[in-house]
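Structure ticket #2291
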Amino acid sequence: MKTLIVHLKDYKKESILAPLFKMLEALFELFVPLVMAAVIDVGIAQKDSGYIIRMCLVLVALGIIGLVCSITAQYFAAKAAAGFGTGVRHALFWHIQNFSFTEMDTIGTATLITRMTSDINQVQSGVNLVLRLFLRSPFIVFGAMVMAFTVDVQSALVFVVAIPVLSVIVFGIMLITMPLYRKVQAYLDRVLLTTRENLTGARVLRAFNKEEEEIRQFEEGNQLLTDAQKFVGRISGLMNPLTYIVVNGAIIVLIYIGALRVNVGDLTQGEVVALINYMSQILVELVKLANLIITVTKALACAKRIENVLEVKSDMKDGTALWGETAAKSGTDKAAEAETCTAGTEKHEIPAVEFDHVSLTYKGSAGESLTDITFRAEKGQTIGIIGGTGSGKSSLVNLIPRFYDVTKGTVRIGGRDVRDYQVKNLRSHIGMVLQKAVLFKGTIAENLRWGKEDATEQDLEEALAISQAKEFVDTKAGRLDFQIEQSGRNLSGGQKQRLTIARALVRKPEILILDDSASALDFATDAALRGAIRGMKENPTVFIVSQRASSIQYADQIIVLDDGKMAGIGTHEELLAHCPEYQEIYYSQFPKEVASNG
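Resolution: structure written out below.
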């Protein structure tokens, strides 16, 4: 909780005024039993109706003043808690945005969503209650004991015994339930994960008739959550009856002692009523304190979960170099540049992209996803990457914009290790189109300007033309102002893919990566797209990941991956002559008779 409290620094005034006004309300409340005692001992005993009326007006005044103080305290507490929740939410969201793909994969999306929503709401509620009741309730409890001593020392000893017993009950239950509430939140994560997977994969579930199995899994997870909540609820539920037993037992003792002392003339009837009222106030406040502690216990458990995310530091350290800066070359780098390039690759002083004995192992994975990958891509070249499912194609291109860091070897761009670049600066020069086409709710223009915020309408039109999206955008009402629904639900798969390609092209990247991003396009549109990209005046270095041999057969170099290893590299003709893996892929799509005729 310490790391989260800093978000209250902008609400210091509210954090002081809220408990201060609550304590003022409590102070006025402590005078009420004394006024009642005066009404009984003076007004009623002497049958002085004027005195009774005056004292009743005092009670009304105390009530009104207490109400004003309470409302004021509530306002400041709510303002501070809401501001605190906003600050934590911003800090957590910003922190998550700085995670690399490795941290996102390790922590998981479902638990991050829970911590961004449910956990922060619980902590915000905890802060609100703490500001209102954390000082008020103990103040009333100990204030009532002090006031009892001013009435009668012997009777007040009952308070001295009752309050420690109550404290043991309250804090004992808190210590037991705190770890249990953390477990409840973990079960909530699992339920959220199952729910999220079912909603996002609803079509797949129905296609394979898995509804009943998924319902059963959800019910099992939900039952675990329910059982955990019931268990911790039963323990928390002990607080009220146990405190009632202790307080009511103390009231019985007070009445007994009071009766004896009134009988001998040491106490008045009004003073006995005042003592019972003070004990009743303690009971009410302890009920509030019990609810406060339950909420605070939940809040502390949630705060710990939020802190756990905030404590995760990305393994990916930001560099300092900017795009275009040349690196001082070590002897190893010079030797690497002197090596003969692979078949079909023209030799250049500094390649646009170079993989030097690169290997990649995902965190928590038993084996390597990429093993000893070496190749060079010159500026303006088109590099095709092909291979079977799970061969490491996406893993390879994800290393270029540094979504993941290599575990062995080096990836160089412009002769410099990608780890030397400022990540934001590096990615601003790379256009990346991922396998899954992701669009956001908004207009077509707003989605395209994700690529370049200050892009002109001419830039947008040019990107649409190259991506082959112009033909369907022209048919939409409002064209660039056409509203796209969340995730592009009102567009077809091919339309979404073309818009995501246009979004990457808007920034006029020097390196363009198409990660199987034309799979929903027909062959003619795919060919037109590749032709338009080759004709771009910016002459970018293009990486095309595809399952289609036709999409990459005209590339300057084709890299064939097999189980994370490079099975071959060269032109289409070279690979077709000497690479069995490429032959298998190509001839599975184009029968030999058709291929030979082509």
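Closing remark: Residues 331 and 337 are 10 Å apart (CA to CA).
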